[in-house]
Design brief:
Shape: globular
Strand order of the largest sheet: 4-10-9-8-7-5-6
CATH architecture of the largest domain: 3-Layer(aba) Sandwich
Strand content: 15-25%
Helix content: 25-40%
Distance between the termini: 45 Å
Radius of gyration: 22 Å
CATH superfamily of the largest domain: Type I PLP-dependent aspartate aminotransferase-like (Major domain)
Oligomer: single chain
Bound molecules: 4'-deoxy-4'-aminopyridoxal-5'-phosphate
Amino acid sequence: MSLNIHKIRNDFPILNQEIYGKPLVYFDNGATTQKPRIVIDEELKIYLHENSNIHRGVHYLSEQLTQRFEDARKVVQNFIQAKSEHEILFTSGTTQSINTVAYSFGERFVFEDDEIIISSLEHHSNIVPWQLLCERKKAKLKIIPVNDEGELLIDELQKLISPKTKIISVTQVSNALGSVIDVKKIIEIAHNHNIPVLIDGAQSIQHGRVDVQDLDCDFFVFSGHKLYGPTGIGVLYGKEKWLNKMPPFLSGGEMIKKVTFDKTTFNELPFKFEAGTPNYVGAIGLAKAIEYIQSTGIEEISAYEKELLTYATEKLNSIKGLKIIGTSGKKVSLISFILENIHHYDAGMIIDKMGIAVRTGHHCAEPVMQRFGIEGTIRASFSFYNTKEEIDKLYYALLTVKQMFG
Ligand code: PMP
């Protein structure tokens, strides 16, 4: 079954507008995705008719919304195939999820001279929390290298692993290059040495099916706003065997069982990691977004986005002086590129005036830019609501940019 793109585009009200008098072409989906009307309506409905703080009230509104929040957790559990709903923790997003693991796992399991492995393709959010942990605990960060195509050299991982390795944290998809990493292989290698693995799913969850039990990852994290859901909500999946052993990260509010001035005992999973009033509106909105994706069909989304990637790659490659950075055979619908003798920022500004939204810069992945000896790229990231006609517009816009710079 193929997607009805016309209908899909109508589901996203923001797409139907003009920027500088030109129809909006939104190619910044790697930064954040737009929201279907049902997600916006759901949040509006809560604030208009259902709002009440959850977990704490005996009254009708509070009980109803608590139930809906917990139902949202089950929607996420089912979406990523987690074994138990207790393994689904709501956070504010990928960054908070990684910080939670880096702090809490680090407190309990990482000590002086221990080692943590990440990759050269990580977003700053999957670098800095581990660096801070290493500083705090006098541990060491090791890096899996990448080849010229933007593929991780997974065979090198064997050489990096030592008896001191405590955790491996890698992205499933590079936000800067679009490369898809064979994280299943990384997890297999790590588990042969009893090392847990965190997968940053911020750029993978929206492009294909994720099954955390099949992957056998120990932690999986993602953000709602990149998955057609609201901002300020994200997920930390963790195997219960780890989460039970890890101390709380933030404290206060719903994460306690009993507090006296002498001692506090903590609540059970998942509440132990959900201090304070959670973003229940965001969680319910995220569940709506997931239901929208499921009803559209994640396999269909994946297949159509691949079509867009192939089309755009061919088109862009035909432009003289344009170089795609990240040429792995396995990519999501995201293309990073540079234009000979034209600064990415200048190109981005001109394209913007034509109504086309792309991202320029280092994409919060400076080490990736350093690896390729560049300052930044222009990044066009496509969603299933984009079209080949829009890619043609980008193509012509880039020809104009080239012409302007002679
Ligand atoms: N990891 C990756 C791979 C990302 O692309 C991003 C967002 N660009 C993040 C982490 C951080 O996500 P957030 O800002 O939603 O916390």
